[in-house]
Amino acid sequence: MAFRFKHAGIAASIAALAVVVGGAWLLSRTTEVQSAKAAQPAANSDVDIAQQAIIVTDKQAGAFKILAAEARTFSVIKKAVGSIDFNQNMLVQVFTPNPGKIVDTFFNVGETVAKGQTLFTIDSPDLLQAESTLLAASGVLELQTRTLTRVRQLLKTGGGAQKDVDQAISDQQTAEGNYKAARDSVRIFGKTDEEIDRIVADRKVDSILIVPSPISGQIVTRNAAPGLYVQPGNAPAPYTLADLSTMWMVANVIETDAPAYRIGQPVAVSVPAYPEDVFRGHVTTLGLNIDPTTHRQLVRSVIDDPAQKLRAGMLAGFSIETGAPKQSVAVPAGAVVREGDGTMTVWVTADRHRFARRSVTVGIAQDGWYQIVDGLKPGELVASSGAIFLSNKFATAVTG
């Protein structure tokens, strides 16, 4: 029994010794781990949150493009969206000058017409009446001329009286006046003197009235058809023509921009159909009121389109130089980062390894450059590429 207790004490001593040795080992291991952690560099040790700076390695620095902020000239430009329309000052509705029935039509929509070319012809009762009056006046004049010749011959031979000659002269002059008036009436219908002479010589009326094009342009709409009875001014017009060498760009600009626009300002217009083309023109009309619903003002420009590419109804955007060019400090667009809180920042460096984040105030964005209104001086070096990488790295360090 005593033997068993003796061995139990020895076992307890061994167990206690094992606990002591294990504890010592565990304490030693913990110390080693803590020492190892202390020996490791702190995470993001290349990011100085307090100074808002990042230090990059030589390898990383080689991947950045560094440029100096420089002075550049920025055009003061306003932009807006609108639509293309026909130049209404060069849009002509062609009506018949007299009522009648259309006999022939000669052009369709989209075809080009030269000034003076015949668009359509009508059978005009008014022209028929005017030509009939002309023939009657011609016959009366011819008769009165023969009568005057005859009474003059009788007076010379003593077989007539002077009063008969005087009466014949008066009648002949009246007939001559009526004839000239009749010719003028026919001439109003567009007949030339040669055509009138032929009507008188042939004693044959021609009631076909020719309606010519008043301008050179293209047929925009056509409502004319043979057999259709038309009257002056009655809509729709048989033909509508437009001179497409110029078009209108019509836009409604925001109320706050309205004071910047002036008549005569140069305009650059682009349309989705021709993304590589820029159409030039100038402002011709400014609306006299602001729309109370949209709070916008009408701005209309005449745009040159010698190749006739533009079409009425096209969506278009325009840029208008509204002021004198401004010279300011500028950096490439890739150097500016819009942060999550909306601020605009650049990363400035003096040695190409340490980059400091700096808030700036930007102005005009133009041709791949940002105007820097405040926060940067000419000559200061900025990361023109990799700026987003630096901002992301800094944000990760702050939130990590």
Identify the notable features of this structure and list them briefly.
alpha+beta; conserved putative lor/sdh protein from methanococcus maripaludis s2 fold; 4-stranded antiparallel β-sheet; 400 residues; single chain; 22 strands; 31% helix
Report on this model:
There is one protein chain. The chain is α+β, with helices and mostly antiparallel strands and 400 residues long. The chain starts with a helix and ends with a helix. 31% of the residues lie in helices and 38% in strands. Among the domains are: 31 residues; 101 residues, conserved putative lor/sdh protein from methanococcus maripaludis s2 fold. Strand 19 and strand 20 form a beta hairpin.
Note the total helix count: 6
Uncertain segments are 1-44
Major sheet size, sense and barrel closure? 6 strands, antiparallel, barrel
Any idea of the CATH class of the domain at 48-74 and 326-399? Mainly Beta
**What is the radius of gyration?**
48 Å
Shape: rod-shaped
CATH architecture identity of the domain at 48-74 and 326-399: Beta Barrel
How many E strands?
A: 22
| Element order: H for helix, E for strand | HEEHEEEEEEHHHEEEEEEEEEEEEEEH
Mean pLDDT metric: 84
How would you classify the helix and strand content by structural class? alpha+beta
User: What portion of residues belong to β-strands?
Assistant: 35-45%
